[in-house]
Amino acid sequence: MTAPSPINRLRPRRSCLAVPGSNPRFLEKAQGLPADQVFLDLEDACAPLAKPEARHTVVKYLNEGDWTGKTRVVRVNDWTTEWTYRDVVTVVEGAGPNLDCIMLPKVQSAEQVVALDLLLTQIEKTMGFEVGRIGIEAQIENAQGLNHVNEIAQASPRLETIIFGPADFMASINMKSLVVGEQPPGYPADAYHYILMKILMAARANDLQAIDGPYLQIRHVDGFREVAGRAAALGFDGKWVLHPGQVEAANEVFSPSQEDYDHAELILDAYEYYTSEAGGKKGSAMLGDEMIDEASRKMALVIAGKGRAAGMTRTSRFEAPEA
């Protein structure tokens, strides 16, 4: 495996837009949408007969397109197919400098991530690219993958995200539903809570991001907001979007409100002041009616970080009390 890279792996991923790698019209349109991440798909979005040509189409658009401000990802086919190695070799050799991550679907073991890491390293060395710069996103899509998610999350320093793939997962466990992302009928609780929390814990234990999968009723934006809101409430960093109408909703749901962002920044400023010599070197202090301490600072860092990554501007400032 590669040595740990100094590259910042925590890129904004509130909205992760799926784009068929075989569709030039969609590839053109995606460049102008305000998604944090765009992944050009060589897997489910491409028919088997279209996959070989789609590789070259993806290379062309990575090299010639304007993806400014977006994380550029390609989803290859999974290791159980005959397409994976050629997907990786063609795309990375052809467009490696214009590629941020490879997304590996249907990951079931740490060894599958290690294999991709090794292949990427060989290509980078052969082509003279920076070794370790290209990240890996691992998609969990069945029970075996979920059972091994902790090992998967530790498999490579290239890993950036763990992604929930609901459609294949629902099929793999025989869930009684045909609506991807919605609750199955007859179950009164949240059928996805355990899955999402297990992915989230594995991600956070290894300083990775956790991304929720798609909501297939693409014109039902209110339904998308509800499902995305559940993942955001747990602490997920973003969600897949399949339609332009979902992009802004995802960006909004996975960003803090202006009020929460301002409050988080105030906590950070106040804590810095009160723990300083000028503020009395206090371990805890009052900010209005609220007591703040080191735990408050850690919580505020999370919210402030999300707000800064989203480009938010604070509307209030901390003022130290008069002596």
Descriptive report:
- It contains twelve helices and ten strands.
- It is of the alpha/beta class and 323 residues long.
Give the arrangement of secondary structure elements:
Blueprint: E1 15-20, H1 24-30, E2 37-41, H2 51-64, E3 71-75, H3 84-95, E4 101-104, H4 110-127, E5 135-140, H5 143-147, H6 149-153, E6 159-164, H7 166-172, H8 193-205, E7 209-212, H9 221-234, E8 238-241, H10 244-253, H11 258-274, E9 285-287, E10 290-292, H12 294-309
Parallel strand pairs: 1-2, 1-8, 2-3, 3-4, 4-5, 5-6, 6-7, 7-8
Antiparallel strand pairs: 9-10
In a few lines, what is going on in this structure?
The protein has 323 residues and is of the alpha/beta class. The protein has helices spanning 24-30, 51-64, 84-95, 110-127, 143-147, 149-153, 166-172, 193-205, 221-234, 244-253, 258-274, 294-309; strands at residues 15-20, 37-41, 71-75, 101-104, 135-140, 159-164, 209-212, 238-241, 285-287, 290-292. The protein has an 8-stranded parallel beta barrel, surrounded by 5 helices.
What's the overall geometry? globular
- Secondary structure tally: strands: 10
Tell me the span between the first and last alpha carbons: 57 Å
The average pLDDT is 92
Give the ordered list of helices and strands.
EHEHEHEHEHHEHHEHEHHEEH
Rg (CA only): 21 Å
Strand order of the largest sheet: 1-2-3-4-5-6-7-8
Content of β-strand: 5-15%
**Helical proportion, percent range:** 40-55%
Number of helices: 12
- Specify the structural class: alpha/beta
Low-confidence stretches: 1-6
Largest sheet descriptor: 8 strands, parallel, barrel
